[in-house]
């Protein structure tokens, strides 16, 4: 639980760690039960069959240099944004 809290940049008290660990365990247990439900023969919801997809159309975008100029951290030579490391930090 503390690893998850660290990834989310949360500072939890020991009581909160215990409570959230219990709640997360209950959620995962329920999700496991839901996965065991036999759904063969169950028709998908009607709303998923009536989705209307629009066609993709080409449209101009902002010039890369202009966007990178306004980025707080960017490698302009490589044309890339720099973002804070989240995973494995």
Please outline the helices and strands.
Blueprint: H1 2-7, H2 14-35, H3 46-49, H4 64-70, E1 74-75, E2 80-81
Antiparallel strand pairs: 1-2
Which key features would you list for this structure?
4% strand; 2 strands; Histone, subunit A; 89 residues; two-stranded antiparallel ribbon; 4 helices; mainly alpha
Which series of helices and strands comes N to C?
A: HHHHEE
Q: Could you give the distance between the termini?
A: 16 Å
Give the strand order, joined by hyphens, for the main sheet. 1-2
| Structural class label | mainly alpha
Count of DSSP-assigned helices: 4
Give an account of the 3D structure.
The structure is a single chain. This protein is mainly α and 89 residues long. The protein has a domain at 1-37: Histone, subunit A (Orthogonal Bundle). The protein is 44% helix and 4% strand. It has helices spanning 2-7, 14-35, 46-49, 64-70, and strands at 74-75, 80-81. A hairpin with a 4-residue loop joins strand 1 (74-75) and strand 2 (80-81). The longest helix has 22 residues, at 14-35. The protein is flat.
Short description:
The protein is mainly alpha-helical and 89 residues long.
């Amino acid at each position: 639980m503390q690893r998850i809290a660290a990834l989310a940049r949360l500072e939890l008290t020991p009581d909160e760690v215990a409570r959230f660990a219990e709640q997360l365990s209950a959620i995962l247990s329920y999700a496991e039960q839901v996965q065991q439900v036999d759904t063969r023969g169950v028709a998908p919801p009607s709303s998923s069959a009536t989705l209307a997809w629009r066609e993709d159309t080409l449209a101009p975008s902002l010039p890369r240099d202009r966007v990178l100029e306004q980025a707080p951290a960017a490698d302009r030579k490589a044309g890339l944004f720099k973002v804070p490391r989240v995973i494995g930090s």
